[in-house]
């Protein structure tokens, strides 16, 4: 054990690995923080580079870049209300509201601090609990995934501040968008209108970029330039964080645990973890009415959950070669390419390489704090720059970023179309974040639902028979009935009170 | 793309125009390749096809002395990238990696492209499907499994490995037909690729998967599943204990997912010959062999003529399986 | 673009019905008791129900008033009187960003990345009120910077067109 650890240290303390990690960290921070570019794209563009690196350095770049990019997706979310990842879409409104209240440094500081803490908690779970966590991952069949996805979708109504009916409608629109393409259970073209480009369906990332970034530029076209913020010194980023840690230590722990569990389930990943944790935070908060007005509590829990899930998402990837999300899928490719084939042998025969991966995760999450603070300081200048200088750059990033995902101009068309959709939805009070959640979860819901029915020959019994499925079903149905019960309770309470006084 | 590449591109288009006007052939082959070559991959970065294309491109670069840039043209479930290869200028500066889907998609009416839309250069790889069951499954040999399938009512057994109409689905259909059973004797549960299918197999949601052995490898090594047979003419050197269908059951059925390099139709023969020769060197190199065996990928060589007839044969086989499964529109 | 709830709700009813119908007419897939037609059917019905609920104002009581948190110096008061005068066409300005993106799709292959991007940047910048002193250098430099990062370092095949990048 100790010897493997020393070997692992020797593996990562070469100049190549150190330079690769720092360079990839800066790269991930910059790409993740540019509105219109995403963590997935940042990782995909690294693949050709890793081809020329030694195995450990190659993994180092992927680990560092993806961890940083996921965090720095919060930066444009907080400063411009343009979330960089589907995960940060869950709480972008909240962080932006804090910026408008003059608390940008607190919001972003919470992002970097609780991301780092969550990331380290995730790695520790990966180191200590990999085998039991893997058992959880392998006990999930499509029946369980169906309920899990349903629970994830319900978060849409909790997170949105608008009318719940409009939030559900937004989610349904997202699910409808997810129907497009031939990647459905039947493998037939559906809603493709004869367009080859639609066969692959609508990717969540260009849709996300469209409804947030392009729609934001569209709104800017119609509103006058806001008066510049008073030139004040950007306050300390880390100052309030220790206080927050003590105040919200339970929220942070809960976020870590939820993130770790959702992370190990392939297909769910960081996107869903942030949504579920933000929704849980609101549901169990002592002051839920403050959510959405620039309240840091939800950011703490979602940030802690988000990055914890990234690390634990490597459990099924490393043990079984089953990717937890799109970034893990790319990482698996790099692992194979470098001869570190996923599988239990990686933990036994190549244990020192494994420990090197753990160590790199921890280092990346520690590096995130100073580099993240520097990045936030630089990014804060965009609050001072005129809109007419920022928005054109955002447009350019949208065009290049959506093209670079598949080197396909259709991505740019998608972004433009979703800009219009997002603009119209937002103007009429339909939350676009709910639609993004629908697009992200759509394929998983349908796949889980239809394949479960095929496996059970049309019977719904197995949805409740398997033990884990039964628990999840109870949770989902409970969550569904909860608002109704609250409503009934509220109706009954005044009646009781009236009865009490009249007696 | 560099400045030089654009200039030479302009020059070469001018040369083509001139040759068309005056009727003389530019001496392309001697100089080829004079500038960077683009290698189109119809699938995303980090996948198996991407990895194979990148190692081939890196070795071609070493041999021919010009950069071979891999470009992932994704979208349309592979249609977009495949059509980008087919519609490129046939000047040798855009080639690409074809995958087995090119012999399947046109049967479903998804595209007009067929293997005939290309100038085949070389077949580089083929991976046969295996037959995997969960480690808790009662079936120890493929014979036991096949007998149980035969005895059960149609649709009782559930299999997965990829989406509906995907290569591993057709492999299952082909196996059923080879045993004289109807195509729907085993119900196909569509999945989003081999990894989720293997996970569901381990979770107890499926009876068998028919994905390729390298895709199943990690779960098998984790002791959560076992491979009963492979649908190939010979055993896989990495899994020496897994018999072929012919050895285990006497059924002569083999298929597989393959990858090869091709250019757009009407590639000048001098360039095609040069590329095929370079690809042969790549195929024979230790780097390529090591890389592929490390990932568990099978290596199969076919020169231009062999690759063409290989694709024709595969195309007909796929068409038959698709018709049997009711998936074909043609 | 603020439309009455009855209009957006009705649109959702139509969209939902269309989706359900679109799912309905999908041919069944052999060997699949539950095919690709089920999900659009369910979603279409759900969407149509939501639309109906919105038309009839159900659930509006839950609606929290959208509280726009003002900037700390109180930007809420800044309402633009002069822009109301510019008439109905003013609203069409919002379509400029998607139009520019489509322009990029059409023009990038012919004009090349640098020129197309410079036009996009210049138009967006001036439309947002920048003077040429800001817009021109921005249009000249930002495409080069983006090209350096993506085209050069990350090898994204950005089209060269008429004016290739100087590297």
List the helices and strands and how they pair.
The complex is a heterotrimer of chains A (503), B (330) and C (167).
Chain A: H1 2-12, H2 15-33, H3 39-50, H4 55-72, H5 74-80, H6 86-89, H7 92-100, H8 104-138, H9 142-159, H10 164-178, H11 204-222, H12 241-247, H13 249-264, H14 269-284, H15 297-312, H16 314-320, H17 326-337, H18 344-348, H19 351-379, H20 387-406, H21 410-427, H22 432-455, H23 462-465, H24 467-502
Chain B: H1 3-22, H2 28-31, E1 37-41, H3 48-64, E2 68-72, H4 79-86, E3 94-99, E4 118-127, E5 130-134, H5 142-151, E6 157-160, H6 167-178, E7 186-188, H7 194-202, E8 208-209, H8 213-221, E9 225-230, H9 245-249, E10 257-264, H10 269-284, H11 286-295, E11 299-302, H12 304-324
Parallel strand pairs in B: 1-2, 1-3, 6-7, 6-8
Antiparallel strand pairs in B: 3-10, 4-10, 4-11, 5-9
Helix pairs in contact in B: 3-10, 3-11, 6-12
Chain C: H1 5-24, H2 38-55, H3 81-84, H4 96-111, H5 113-127, H6 132-153
Helix pairs in contact in C: 1-2, 4-5, 5-6
Structural description of this entry:
- The complex is a heterotrimer of chains A (503), B (330) and C (167).
- Chain A has helices at residues 2-12, 15-33, 39-50, 55-72, 74-80, 86-89, 92-100, 104-138, 142-159, 164-178, 204-222, 241-247, 249-264, 269-284, 297-312, 314-320, 326-337, 344-348, 351-379, 387-406, 410-427, 432-455, 462-465, 467-502.
- Chain A has 24 helices and no strands.
- In chain A, 68% of the residues are buried.
- Helices cover 75% and strands 0% of the residues of chain A.
- Chain B has two domains: 36-126 and 256-324, Bordetella uptake gene, domain 1 (D-Maltodextrin-Binding Protein, domain 2), CATH 3.40.190.150; 129-249, Periplasmic binding protein-like II (D-Maltodextrin-Binding Protein, domain 2).
- In chain B, the strands form three sheets. Chain B has a six-stranded mixed beta sheet with strand order 2-1-3-10-4-11.
- In chain B, helix 3 (48-64) crosses helix 10 (269-284), helix 3 (48-64) packs antiparallel against helix 11 (286-295) and helix 6 (167-178) crosses helix 12 (304-324).
- With 167 residues, chain C is mainly alpha-helical.
- In chain C, helix 1 runs antiparallel to helix 2 (38-55) and helix 5 (113-127) runs antiparallel to helix 6 (132-153).
- Chain C starts with a helix and ends in a 14-residue tail after the last helix.
- The interface between A and C is large, with 81 and 88 residues.
């Amino acid at each position: 054990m100790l010897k493997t650890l020393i070997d692992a240290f020797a593996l990562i303390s070469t100049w190549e690995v150190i330079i690769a990690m720092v360079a990839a960290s800066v790269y991930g921070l910059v790409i993740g923080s540019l509105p219109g570019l995403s963590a997935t794209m940042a990782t995909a563009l690294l693949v050709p580079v890793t081809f020329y690196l030694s195995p450990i350095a190659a993994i180092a770049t992927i680990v560092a870049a993806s961890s940083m990019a996921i965090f720095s997706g919060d930066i444009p979310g907080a400063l411009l209300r343009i979330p960089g990842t589907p995960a940060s879409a869950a709480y972008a409104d909240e962080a932006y509201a804090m910026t408008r209240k003059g608390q940008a440094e607190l919001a972003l500081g919470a992002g970097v601090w609780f991301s780092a803490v969550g990331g380290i908690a995730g790695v520790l779970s990966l180191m200590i609990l990999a085998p039991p966590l893997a058992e959880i991952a392998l006990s999930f069949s499509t029946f369980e995934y169906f309920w899990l996805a349903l629970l994830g979708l319900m978060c849409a109504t909790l997170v949105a501040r608008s009318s719940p009916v409009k939030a559900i409608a937004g989610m349904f629109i997202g699910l409808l968008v997810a129907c497009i393409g031939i990647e459905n259970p039947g493998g037939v073209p559906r809603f493709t209108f004869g367009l080859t480009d639609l066969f692959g369906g609508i990717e969540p990332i260009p849709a996300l970029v469209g409804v947030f970034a392009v729609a934001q530029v569209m709104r800017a076209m119609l509103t006058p330039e806001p008066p510049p913020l008073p030139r004040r010194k950007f306050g300390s980023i880390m100052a309030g964080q220790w206080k927050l840690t003590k105040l919200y230590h339970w929220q942070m722990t809960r976020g870590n645990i939820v993130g770790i569990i959702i992370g190990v389930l392939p297909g769910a990943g960081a996107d869903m973890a942030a949504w579920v944790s933000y929704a849980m935070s609101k549901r169990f908060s002592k002051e839920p009415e403050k959510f959405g007005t620039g309240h840091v509590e939800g950011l703490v829990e979602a940030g802690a959950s988000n990055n914890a899930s990234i690390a634990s998402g490597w459990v099924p990837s490393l043990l079984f070669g089953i990717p937890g999300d799109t970034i893990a899928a790319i990482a698996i490719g790099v692992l194979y390419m470098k001869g570190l084939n996923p599988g239990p042998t990686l933990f036994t025969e190549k244990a020192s390489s494994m420990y090197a991966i753990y160590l790199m995760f921890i280092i990346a999450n520690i590096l995130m704090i100073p580099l993240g603070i520097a990045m936030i300081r630089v990014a804060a200048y965009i609050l001072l720059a005129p809109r007419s200088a920022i928005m054109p750059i955002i447009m350019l990033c949208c065009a290049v970023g959506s093209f670079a995902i598949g080197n396909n101009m259709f991505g740019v068309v998608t972004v433009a179309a979703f800009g219009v959709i997002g603009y119209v939805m937002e103007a009429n009070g339909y939350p676009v974040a709910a639609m993004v959640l629908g697009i992200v979860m759509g394929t998983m819901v349908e796949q889980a639902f239809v394949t479960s029915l095929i496996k059970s020959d049309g019977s719904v019994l197995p949805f409740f028979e398997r033990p884990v499925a039964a628990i999840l079903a109870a949770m989902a149905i409970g969550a569904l009935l909860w608002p109704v019960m609250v409503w009934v309770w509220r109706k009954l309470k005044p009646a009781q009170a009236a009865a009490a006084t009249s007696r | 793309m560099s400045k030089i590449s654009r200039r030479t591109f302009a020059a070469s288009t001018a040369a083509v125009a001139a040759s068309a006007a005056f009727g003389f052939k530019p001496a392309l082959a001697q100089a080829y390749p004079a500038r960077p070559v683009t290698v189109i991959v119809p699938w995303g970065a980090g996948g198996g096809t991407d990895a194979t294309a990148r190692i081939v491109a890196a070795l071609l670069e070493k041999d021919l002395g010009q950069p071979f840039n891999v470009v992932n043209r994704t979208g349309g479930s592979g249609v977009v990238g495949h059509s980008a290869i087919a519609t490129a200028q046939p000047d040798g500066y855009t080639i690409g990696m074809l995958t087995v889907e090119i012999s399947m998609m046109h049967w479903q009416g998804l595209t007009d492209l067929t293997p005939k839309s290309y100038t085949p250069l070389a077949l580089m790889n083929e991976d046969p499907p295996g037959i995997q069951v969960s480690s808790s499954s009662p079936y120890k040999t493929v014979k036991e499994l096949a007998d149980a399938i035969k005895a059960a009512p149609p649709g009782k057994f559930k299999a997965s490995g990829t989406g509906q109409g995907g290569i591993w689905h057709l492999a299952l259909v082909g196996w059923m037909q080879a045993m004289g059973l109807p195509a729907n004797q085993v119900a196909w549960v569509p999945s989003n690729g081999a990894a989720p299918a293997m996970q569901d197999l381990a979770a107890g949601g499926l009876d068998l998967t028919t994905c390729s052995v390298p895709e199943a490898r990690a779960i098998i090594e984790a002791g959560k599943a076992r491979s009963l047979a492979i649908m190939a003419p010979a055993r896989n050197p990495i899994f020496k204990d897994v018999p072929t269908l012919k050895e285990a059951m006497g059924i002569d059925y083999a298929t597989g997912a393959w990858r090869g390099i091709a250019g757009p139709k009407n590639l000048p023969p001098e360039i095609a010959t040069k590329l095929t020769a370079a690809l042969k060197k790549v195929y024979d190199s230790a780097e390529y062999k090591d890389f592929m065996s490390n990932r568990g990928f099978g290596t199969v060589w076919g020169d231009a003529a062999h690759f063409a007839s290989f694709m024709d044969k595969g195309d007909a086989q796929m068409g038959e399986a698709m018709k049997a499964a009711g998936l074909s529109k043609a | 673009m603020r439309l009455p709830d009855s209009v957006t709700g009705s649109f959702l009813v139509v969209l939902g019905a269309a989706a359900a119908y679109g799912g309905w007419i999908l041919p069944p897939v052999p060997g699949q008791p539950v095919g690709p037609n089920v999900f659009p059917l369910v979603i279409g019905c759900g969407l149509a129900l939501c639309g109906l609920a919105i038309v009839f104002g159900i659930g509006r009581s839950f609606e929290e008033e959208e509280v726009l948190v003002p900037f700390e110096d109180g930007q809420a008061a800044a309402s633009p009187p002069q822009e109301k005068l510019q008439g109905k066409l003013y609203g069409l300005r919002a379509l400029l960003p998607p139009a520019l993106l489509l322009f990029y799709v059409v023009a990038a292959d012919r004009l090349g990345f640098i020129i197309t991007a410079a036009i996009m940047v210049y138009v967006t910048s001036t439309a947002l009120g920048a003077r040429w002193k800001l817009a021109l250098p921005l249009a000249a430099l930002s495409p080069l910077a983006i090209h350096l990062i993506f085209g050069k370092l990350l090898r994204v095949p950005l089209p060269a067109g008429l004016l290739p990048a100087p590297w």
